[in-house]
Amino acid sequence: MNVTITDSYDAMSRAAADVIAATVTENPHCNLGLATGSTPIGLYADLVRDYDDGIISFADVTTFNLDEYRGLDPDHDQSYRYFMNKNLFDLVNIDPAATHVPDGANPDADAACEAYEQAIAAAGGVDLQLLGLGHNGHIGFNEPCDHFPVDTHVVKLTESTINANSRLFDSAEDVPREAYTMGIGTIMRAKKILVVASGADKAQIVHDAFFGPVTPEVPASVLQLHPDVTVIVDAEAGALCK
Fold this sequence. Notes:
By secondary structure, this protein is α/β, with parallel strands linked by helices. Helices cover 30% and strands 17% of the residues.
């Protein structure tokens, strides 16, 4: 595991974007696993600038997003499909048919999750998986529990996650209570993993996840067992790391 502490959020974003851009340059047909949330917005903006400057092309890239709220239509302004369209997909030359997000509008959880696992497998797996880091250590929507879920599945969101995401909705009551998410096994099968985290409120979980014991109570801690993980954080998030 390679942990890099940068001076600022902007520097973290640029460093993470460089990792993704290098992957796309080295393998124009790569499969990228992508994440949503506030932390990756900066790196997506950097990738869009790289595209506008002619540095990279997404023409042959395929993407698979980590998760999606269950029950939200793709056109809902808080769906993760909408987020990705707004922050990346609509701004670069990627083929919309090559962008994949779990089907939150499908009420059949088993069918939605199985279809997503099959799509990832059919594409040959994920070459580089981008992850954010939740305050409780969740990656995707894999919340703290007594085991590491293996495959894409439906999960009940914890109150802490609901509260953290409520700032994006009119109220906490409007936040969906379930989501479809890649499992820990799905994530760990990626060839490379890139984790980003920023802010003083992430300092403790960055320390616990990457320098503490491996436990499903801190889902991100399992990444210590992956052979190729890069963690990039800003100075505040890395404050407790030696």
